[in-house]
Amino acid sequence: MAASPQTEKFAACLRMLKDRSGRGYDRLGKEAGVSGSSLHRYCSGLSVPTDYRVVHAFAKVCGASAEELRELHRLWALADTDRDVPAVTAEENPEPEPDEPVGPAQGSPGPDDDTPPEITRDDPGQPRRSRLPGKLSSRSGILAAVVAVVLVAGFVVWLPVGRPASASPATDDRLLYSPACKSVSMGQHDECVREVQSLLVRAKGRLAVDGDFGPETLRRLTAFQVLAGMPATNVVDEATKEALYGQQVSMATWTPAKVAKRIREVFVEDPGTAVSIARCASYLDPLWVLPNTNGSRNWGVFQISDARLRELDGTPLRAFDPEWNIKAAHRLWSVRRDFHDWPSCEAALKDTPKKN
Predict the structure, then answer these.
(1) Residues 234-287: pLDDT tens digits?
(2) Where is the chain membrane-spanning (predicted)?
């Protein structure tokens, strides 16, 4: 089966990095901790790695810049989303493959481990675009017919159902409460997404306002929900809309420079390596979130996993506190006095040729 457009874009980016490195698949594979044959499949668009850490390690040994790493992560997330979506039209009404997840609940992993639990999907047999529920469409049609009749009569009367004619109607002109924005989630590209992004920026979130609900927006939405004390649902639900418009949550946090300075102060034993590990893991972003294919997430500066958080008596909210996160990472480092909890970043640092 031909690769999806998103998978091909991801593969093209990998090929560019591989060609630029001037090294073969076997050598790159050894340096990145993956087989050369697997790298060949990824670069050819024949498959998409289920764990982003493999991609990150490969990109690092190829000398990818921070900007290239961000773009590669975006392309990987989109390609991973398309992994199990059959390349057929809605009219063909295909039967799902035996191992394909059918209609998983938003925010919960499907039965296939290759399905990224952090990414919500439309029905596999339908085109991936924002759609209005049928009931809303029917109501909109009835309303349009009523308005047309009234306009023919030469005047307009607004009489909401269940409200006396003498009462002034309660209106809410906030975009996210319009029928078109009933649900906002991964994969959408419209004005509803742009409104969410604008509200996140107003809350001091760092992201682009482009109307595209991709990995960057998902990370910021997840961080906002955690900071607001609500479940990280991966979708803009009613509670999230209220919090976004309420302007009571601030996403302001430490700058990368301040994060690096504090890491050097805490990791006095090996400050340079500690900063490099954190930069590899999160770009020194205290609110960085990375989903794993098993349903867990990594949080904060040192990308501490859910499992490690439980061992450290922490929570995602505490992990977003850079002071707590850095000290918790030092506790993990102190167990064996090495960076074994960050194997991909540690391997990438060791295998990267030293610059004179």
Answers:
(1) 899 999 999 999 999 999 999 999 999 999 999 999 999 999 999 999 999 999
(2) 141-161
Q: Count other Cβ atoms within 10 Å, centred on residue 254.
A: 19
CA distances from 154 to 148, 166, 168, 169 (A): 10, 21, 22, 22
The larger pLDDT score, comparing residue 233 to residue 82, is at: 233
256-351: what fold?
Lysozyme (1.10.530)
Query: What is the secondary structure of 296-342 as a DSSP string?
Result: -EEETTTTEEHHHHHHTT--HHHHTSHHHHHHHHHHHHHHHTS-TT-
5-86 is classed CATH 2.40.50.1000: no
Residue type, 310: R
Are 194 and 211 in contact by the 8 Å Cβ rule? The answer is yes
Task: Give per-residue pLDDT as tens, 10-37.
Answer: 888 999 898 888 888 888 888 888 888 8
Contact (Cβ atoms closer than 8 angstroms) between residue 221 and residue 200: yes
pTM of the predicted structure, to 2 decimals: 0.56
97 — phi, psi (to 5°)? Answer: -65, 155
Q: Edge-to-edge, what's the strand order for the sheet holding 304-305?
A: 289-291, 297-299, 304-305
For the chain, the domains span 5-86, 175-246, 256-351
H runs (alpha helix) in the chain: 5-21, 25-32, 36-44, 52-61, 66-81, 134-152, 191-202, 215-227, 238-246, 256-266, 271-282, 306-311, 316-319, 322-336, 343-351
Fold category of 175-246 in CATH? Muramoyl-pentapeptide Carboxypeptidase; domain 1 (1.10.101)
